[in-house]
Write a structure and sequence with these properties.
Low-confidence stretches: none
Keywords: Membrane, Transmembrane, Transmembrane helix
Largest sheet: 2 strands, antiparallel
Shape: flat
Mean pLDDT: 82
Distance between the termini: 39 Å
Helix content: over 70%
Order of helices and strands: HHHEHHE
Structural class: mainly alpha
Number of helices: 5
Strand content: under 5%
Strand order of the largest sheet: 1-2
């Protein structure tokens, strides 16, 4: 499991380095809220295969719940302040890759099975695909 974690950390670190290189800051509350909800959903989905292990699943669900609550607050503030609703796919891609690394770290004490690695590796692959197609959508 440590080798899988190390490979995912390297992939996510390279993506973060290349993603934030020569970056013009375009982060707004709406985009940050989308990033938080993406991270929270990945953590919630990652808690499904490990529901037998109470400590791991409860940590994942607690962190995901906090992130989703923060997202709701950010959505309310962004609607009140009328910030532009642009979504940066690069931020979502990096969030997916970091969420995959967090999931594997939280599951490092569990057995290395395909069911435990489906959600983190799928999040990493989707993050790489989104990172490749980094463009803004409105």
């Amino acid at each position: 499991m440590w080798i899988v974690l190390l490979v995912n950390v390297i992939v996510a670190a390279v993506a973060v380095i290349f993603g934030f290189q020569n970056r013009v800051e375009t982060l707004n509350l709406f985009n940050a809220g989308i990033v938080f909800i993406t991270f929270g959903i990945v953590l919630l989905l990652g808690a499904i295969p490990v529901y037998q292990d109470f400590s791991t699943s409860s940590i994942l669900m607690f962190i995901a719940g906090i992130l989703i609550i923060v997202r709701i607050i950010m959505l309310a503030v962004s609607l009140i302040t009328k910030v532009p609703r642009t979504v940066n796919l690069q931020d979502i891609a990096i969030s997916l890759m970091i969420a995959a690394v967090c999931l594997i770290y939280f599951m490092h004490g569990l057995n290395l099975s395909l069911s435990n690695l489906v959600v983190p590796e799928l999040a990493l692959i989707i993050g790489i695909i989104l990172f490749y197609f980094k463009r803004k959508r409105q």
